[in-house]
Amino acid sequence: MRTTQTLDLNDARTIIDLGIAEAERTGNPMNIAVVDAGGCLLAFARMDDSWRGSVDIAIGKAWAARAFDVETKALAKLAQPGADFYGIHASNDGKVMIFAGGVPIKEGETVIGAVGVSGGTGKEDESVAEAAAQAFARG
């Protein structure tokens, strides 16, 4: 029997808590989304005073990081005019977010989900997402 390695709701809550702690440390309220290995939303948190317009962006970043198993900041570089993935943001009914802040979460070498963060600059979003993913990482 084959089993799928994936995040569960308790994992997602932990990742969100780690993201919130990092966002509070930096003083920037964020929207934080966590998806499982199948790209399905497990949990979401919008911190007080975070941008309402970033809700869908955080969810999209998490989904894109899992869909392509790559940080969205790396995907953004590949999606520039003349690059191999130019126009990818229009695929999948526009769900692909190519802004920094989406990070796959791994157990060993296997991607088991992803976190997406939005509400600041790309660098700020990426910092919170990476901190949450690295603090949670298994193996």
UniProtKB/TrEMBL annotation:
Gene3D superfamilies, per database record: Haem-degrading domain
InterPro entries membership: GlcG_carb_metab_protein, PduO/GlcC-like, PduO/GlcC-like_sf
Protein name: PduO protein
Coiled-coil parts of chain: none
Superkingdom of origin organism: Bacteria
